[in-house]
Amino acid sequence: MARSPLMHLMIKAADKAARGLRRDFNEIEHLQVSRKGAKDFVTNADLTAEQVIKEELKAARPDFGFLMEESGASGPVEKRWIVDPLDGTTNFIHGIPHFAINIAIEVVGQIVACVTYDPIKEEMFTSEKGRGAFLNDRRIRVSERERLEECVIGFGKGLRDSRSMEHVMGRLGNVTQSVGATRRMGSAALDMAYVAAGRYEGFFEGGLKSWDLAAGTLLVKEAGGSVQTREPGKTVLETGEVIASNSRIHNTLCSLLRVKVNTSLN
Fold first, then answer.
1. How many C-beta atoms surround the C-beta of residue 13 within 10 A?
2. I need a labelling partner for 28 at 20 to 30 A (CA). Which of 13, 21, 85, 178 fits?
3. CB 257, CB 179: distance < 8 Å
4. Helix, strand and coil percent figures for the chain, each rounded to 5
5. Is residue 40's pLDDT more than 70?
6. CB 64 within 8 A of CB 80
7. What residues does 67 pair with on adjacent strands?
8. What does DSSP say about strands 152-155 and 138-140: parallel, antiparallel, or unpaired?
């Protein structure tokens, strides 16, 4: 499989950061963990991985800007890296081997290439706009299942709702009762990658950030799937809410979530 120089660079940066994450994960009891908000944590491993990735990418492409989970935005926005050095921090600090590194390239508001790397399973999901999606060196496609009772749907906190939690849980209940199984795994990056690889038929979550979603959005689209947000005229990266699917069940999944289907599928 032919890869562009930028793809090689992203893979190299992810692999370099992964070495430190694997080392720290194996010594999880010694990690210094600090509180960062009511339900959010940051670890030394997270910060170190971000620095490793930033140094690697900046050295090769000094003209690119950055949007990173820990250090925020810097440099030009027309062409920039969007990076989450450790998606699934809670899993990581509890010794659960399910987390990922996310790196994407945004050019004038469009995601054009990405890497989602699971360093424990050594699964490298990659995609470039118009060139398909891959797991390591194998082309991947979304699943072809369309019978809901055969489908597995991943979810996170659920779509944001200005009404009561009862409505949010009602939507989740609609999905749970209608499909074969649901999974909450704690890493939106891997949830999106699993839709792209045909492991899940769909995924939904709200309250996310651009670094959580940028790579997965491209992966799912390039694997033949559908991605949308709830609000008409806005993109997934703008709202932080995502509904992703294998396309075959997209209309039904949106209906269960009480979301109008977006035919433009941003």
1. 27
2. 13
3. no
4. 35, 25, 40
5. no
6. yes
7. 73, 82
8. unpaired
The Cα-based distances of 9 to 47, 67, 68, 171 in angstroms read 20, 17, 17, 41
For tokens 């689209």, the residue is: 221
- Sequential DSSP letters for 161-213: -SS-HHHHHHHHHHHHHHSSEEE--S-HHHHHHHHHTTS-SEEEE-S--HHHH
d(CA 169, CA 174): 9
Alpha-carbon distance of 1 to 22, in angstroms, equals 27
SS3 160: coil
Does the pTM exceed 0.85? yes
Any idea which residue has 């909450």 for tokens?
Answer: 184
Evaluate whether 49 touches 101 at the Cβ level (below 8 Å): yes
CA angle, 22 as apex, 218 and 93 as ends, to 5°? 85
Question: Position 55: which residue type?
Answer: E
Residues 6+ apart with CB under 8 A from 233: none
Give the list of residues 6+ apart from residue 245 with CB closer than 8 angstroms, or none. 142, 195, 201, 202, 203, 225, 226, 253
Amino acid sitting at position 162: S
Phi, psi (deg, nearest 5) at residue 139: -65, 135
Report pLDDT digits (tens) over 150-172.
999 999 876 665 555 666 677 78
Mutual orientation of helices 44-60 and 5-26 as an angle, nearest 10°? 160
